[in-house]
Design goal:
heterodimer, A: ABC transporter involved in vitamin B12 uptake, BtuC, two-stranded antiparallel sheet, 11 helices, 2 strands, globular, B: alpha/beta, 4-stranded antiparallel beta sheet, 10 helices, 10 strands, 21% strand
Amino acid sequence: MMADQIQFFFEVLIGGLLSGVMYSLVALGFVLIYKTSGVLNFAQGSMVLFAALTFVQLREKGLPFAVAFLITLILMAVLGITVERTVMRPLLNRSPIVLFLATLGLSYIIEAGAQLIWGTQVHALDLGISDTPIQVGPVSISQFDISAALISGTLVAALVFFFQRTRTGLTFRAVADDPFAALAVGLRLSRIWALVWITAGLIALVAGLLWGARLGVQFSLSLIVLKAFPVLVLGGFDSILGTIVGGLIIGATEKLAEVFVGPLFGGGIETWFAYVVALVFLLIRPTGLFGQKVVERV
Amino acid sequence: MPPPDTTSGSPNGHLSARAPAALALDHISLAFGGVRALTDVSLEVRTGEIRSIIGPNGAGKSSLLNVISGVYQPQSGAVYIDGVPYPRIDPARLAAIGIARTFQNLALFDGLSVLDNIAIARSPRGGGDLLSQFLALPEARRAARKAREEADDLVQFFGLETYRHRRVGSLPYGARKRVELARALIARPRLLLLDEPMAGMNHQDKHDMTQFIRSARDRFSTTVILIEHDLSVVMNLSDRIAVLDFGNKIADGTPTDVRTNDAVIAAYLGVDHDHPQGVTQS
């Protein structure tokens, strides 16, 4: 009986951690743009939707996986560059709230655009990963969850490598640290920002495929941004490492709370429990676990 | 560009008389609305020299530096670099032109390490595109290693070894000034512009910085233009000094010339402006 309990606990925990990695993936798109240009890009969710919809439509037209992926990626790049050129750059140096509202508007425009081009139907997306559980020791885990976590984890690792080890990554970090100093050493901010939006597009594409395969490609997909916010509050808005840890914590506590605390409330607490955690965090540690502390000299 | 003769520390030891000036300002005038910041200022900087621009507050020193670095566009006059006229200097392309500068209030990346701060200003000479960087292809790896070596070299040159991996924001002020100088030098500039390199420094820091500027000039064969308040530093460090007052150049010459110039003394000590002596005002 006791052993069963423990085994069940671990199954829930692992399932939670794995879905947490997918939260991290969405949050990562935010962090990337927030770090380098100080914009909280609300449109990240609609970019996820746009990517998933485009991909699924191309697949339904009979294109092979790789071709569909490539075309979608190119479209995401074009979208990213367009947004940077036509919306973000003219609004440069405006207050954060103006930029945030601009991205909010943008998210509806992208959604409507996707709807206009691809229609409003719900599409099933099959990535060819089976969803049958496999046994790892005494614990059974969803194969899809493992694959999704692996893919997300690889992307995150690649991004960390890129940020820490390449020259372009260094310029990203520099722009994030101080745009004025970046200008002073002759970094081309517009080129860097375009690259950032392209990278955010790539992340949106991967997130769109994984979440689309899990939930079906439909318009509620853009709402996964809302799942990213608690992760960001926990991990800090400007920390890649933070999004990973934040995602894991949110994923795990959400599932554990649903299973073990949920019955006390009559179930269904999974949808809002993450926000309770985030709220508590905001009260006790506003910069998140890994966010940069703001020290002001007075 | 042939490396200048840097064997001598004497004021006129770096001249190659026939080569075009490293920098020439030709009758520069700059005004903001009705305020004349610079009036008909001409200035020549020889290759390899340390050239100072001094003057009382509001004399136009910073304006002059900002004209050279393209921040301000003068209403009239021309800027020549190595004899080539630059009707318009794009501040974003300063490094490509061969000009590097430091800032009075520092423009460092406080959150990045000393090494990263220096390495970032190295102009990407080859090193491959994004993809080859990402895939860590040999060419990109070589370029990255080269950048690290060069940055490391400068870290040693400026005695910053103990700070190498520290965040710049956590360094003492004097060390940050040195990081900024190192960052300017990694781009191998023809012209190095220093905006008040001694500002906010104590006596020892100033002494060290004077040595660093001089040896940096010798080692990297660059031409140095600096504006500075501390007259004893300027007299000690400069090959030639130009003096500005109310936007006009009132004197130009070796430290000895300038020290004994009546107009300079008047500008610094003040004159009865109803009866100016030697001070030309507009």
